[in-house]
Sequence to fold (84 residues):
Amino acid sequence: MLMQILVGLLVGLAAGWLASQVVSDRGFGVVGDTIIGLIGGLIGGLLFTALGLGAENIVGSILISFVGAVILLIIAKAFVHRGA
Fold:
């Protein structure tokens, strides 16, 4: 159980950091990147499940979380720019 939580946090951190580098050219810190990656994992998981796809290994999990995190950051960026 503890190992699954640690792997999930590491996947979230990796995906969140990658997505923040692609979308905004800067990271949001360890906690921020991890949260973005974890929420991205939920978004990506829903999207890929709806498409009938899934992750076979940790690289696939990072990819799915990365795609979801990019979607999350693009949506957040649209709302921030709209409010500014």
User: Anything to note?
Assistant: The first helix runs from residue 2 to 24. The chain is about 85% helix and 0% strand. The mean pLDDT is 90.
